[in-house]
């Protein structure tokens, strides 16, 4: 069954006159009659009761009318959705990101882009590095802001920017007045940390391992906000991004600098909408 046959059938069912329906459709009467004839042959029944002046749907035609109307509506909906995907200035872009980027990076990027393309909608989802990688790998997200590089052959990860890590200590801590701290001094401190699987935890572990330091981790948590709260409460110190000020916490620079490189990730093996592809190009051009 062809879409034009369905359209012709619906027009004739609504009007009942071949001449009128053909004129409304912009086709000849013979074209319309042949189209209905093919449809009836495919159905194996006549769909209209023919009288001298008019065609009336019979019981077979009324059954087809119900389902043909639904089918045409679904087809038009599909076409509209496809057109939206093809339009880079509209549609929806799904973004997964490491939760700690949600307070500074994501608002800036999304705000800059919507200033250019106000019709774009965003679906934002924050999580750990593992959950963000899962989202971009499984197709739940169009793009992802992720750190560190996942080193996955299916993921195209390109660095955008970086942020330094500093030692976060509570106000009044003996190190709070220092202009810097050596990595060798950290081994005697009680640390609170994110659980393994977090990108920030992986970067911190690599930093300590590179300098031969084994930190004394007294507590592990799943969220950066909780980690900051534990530092403020004096439970321990932590390596924290220096991108935002946190009342109650002093960020002491590390003499041996530690950085977190942030990149934009896309999935090489999955097709993407024009809107998502244009957004990814914008981010790479503006932030790389």
Strands, helices and their partners?
Blueprint: H1 3-15, H2 18-25, H3 29-43, E1 48-50, E2 55-57, H4 59-86, E3 92-98, H5 105-116, E4 121-127, H6 129-138, E5 143-146, E6 155-170, E7 190-194, H7 199-210, E8 216-221, H8 224-232, E9 238-241, E10 249-252, E11 258-267, H9 274-287
Parallel strand pairs: 3-4, 3-5, 7-8
Antiparallel strand pairs: 1-2, 5-11, 6-9, 6-10, 6-11
Explain what you see.
With 288 residues, the chain is an alpha/beta fold. Helix content is 42%, strand content 24%. The chain has helices at 3-15, 18-25, 29-43, 59-86, 105-116, 129-138, 199-210, 224-232, 274-287; strands at residues 48-50, 55-57, 92-98, 121-127, 143-146, 155-170, 190-194, 216-221, 238-241, 249-252, 258-267. The strands form three sheets. Strands 3, 4, 5, 6, 9, 10 and 11 form a seven-stranded mixed beta sheet that branches. The protein has a two-stranded antiparallel sheet with strand order 1-2. It is rod-shaped and about 100 Å long. The two termini are 51 Å apart.
């Amino acid at each position: 069954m062809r879409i034009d046959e369905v359209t012709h059938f619906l027009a004739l069912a609504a009007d009942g006159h071949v001449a009128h329906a053909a004129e409304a459709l912009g086709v000849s009467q013979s074209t319309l009659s042949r189209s209905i004839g093919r449809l009836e042959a495919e159905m194996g029944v006549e769909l209209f009761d023919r009288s001298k002046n008019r065609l009336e749907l019979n019981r077979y035609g009324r059954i087809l009318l119900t389902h043909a109307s639904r089918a045409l509506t679904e087809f038009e909906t599909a076409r509209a959705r496809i057109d939206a995907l093809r339009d880079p200035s509209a549609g929806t872009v799904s973004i997964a990101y490491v939760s700690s980027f949600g307070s500074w990076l994501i608002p800036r990027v999304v705000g800059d882009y919507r200033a250019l393309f106000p019709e774009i909608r965003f679906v934002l989802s924050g999580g750990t590095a593992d959950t963000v990688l899962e989202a971009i790998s499984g197709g739940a997200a169009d793009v992802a802001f992720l750190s560190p590089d996942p080193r996955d052959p299916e993921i195209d990860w390109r660095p955008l920017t970086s942020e330094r890590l500093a030692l976060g200590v509570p106000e009044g801590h003996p190190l709070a007045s220092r202009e810097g701290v050596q990595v060798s001094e950290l081994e005697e401190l009680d640390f609170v940390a994110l659980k393994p699987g977090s990108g920030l935890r992986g970067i911190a572990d690599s930093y300590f391992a590179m300098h031969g330091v084994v930190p004394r981790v007294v507590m592990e948590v799943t969220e950066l906000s909780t980690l900051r709260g534990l530092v403020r409460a004096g439970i321990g110190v932590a390596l924290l991004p220096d991108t935002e000020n946190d009342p109650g916490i002093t960020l002491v620079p590390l003499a041996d600098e530690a950085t977190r490189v942030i990149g934009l990730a896309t999935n090489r093996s999955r097709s993407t909408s024009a809107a998502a592809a244009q957004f990814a190009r914008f981010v790479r051009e503006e932030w790389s």
